[in-house]
Amino acid sequence: MRAASDVPFTIGWHELGDGAWAYLQPDGVVGLSNAGLVVGDGASLLIDTLFDLKLAEAMLDAISPILDEYPLTAAVNTHANPDHTFGNQLLPATTEIWSSQAGAGEFDDYPPEVMEAMRLQGMPTLHSFNFAEVVLRRPDRTFHGVTQIDVGDTPVELIEVGPAHTKGDVIVYAGDAGVVYTGDILFIGVLPMMWEGPLRNWIAALHRIIALKPRLVVPGHGPVTDTVGVRSVLNMFYFLRDAAELRHSRGMSAVQAVEDIGPEPFDGMLESERVLNLVDMIYRDIDPAHTIMDHPEANANMSRLADLWTSKV
Ligand SMILES: [Zn+2]
Q: Ligand 1 mean position to 249 CA, how many Å?
């Protein structure tokens, strides 16, 4: 039985035991997401398909001896963000792709041509990817709430926990192996973006992961962890909720609140400037009339914070 600390955070597939695998992409920042595989009797299930075709191809090639023996009968997109779905087109036509109903409704929010245009306009975080050849492949099957897929004789539960990170977040529970694949409900070592919220749903989703008592937890970004890692993210969210509520009550703007909180609470975490997005979204939880910053304004503020905070270190 492998413990989380036995699974190195190196690029590639890692066997987790009892038919469960994780594909990790250090260091987990923008676009470097994880994938998973659950292998049953004569069949397998893929969880998420990475950000572009080159990455997805490398991921699928590296596990092809297993896939030859245990054909990919199903796949799950934990949510619609391109870094979890743009490899869908490389899966066999016979592979049924699942997502939540709400998640399926978000696929057209991130068209490959728009992502490629953003990349070509010089968005630095997208530079190393390529979306020119991506053709959106939408889910074949959707569900609402909880559903079970049988991977050969191995039951796997899909549990809808959104809206939180996006509208349609799903976690995947491979109970026989004691592994939860969280998609972007969990980032380890990297601050997450909250595209949808509310935070209380996200907190409930993390509690739900802990309640499953998993042996191992594969986050959407970052190294394999266990419930200790889930609790540390929960604590970070509780801290942020209290810190944001206090500053909101004092009349500070989201930007002022984040400048006041400072980078120290996120020491050692990548993309710490995303705290601005989190605080902005928590402000809307507190006051539904609060206007969320638009993308250009949020991005400008986040890169200013990133510069300010890295120069301090
Ligand atoms: Zn992601």
A: 32
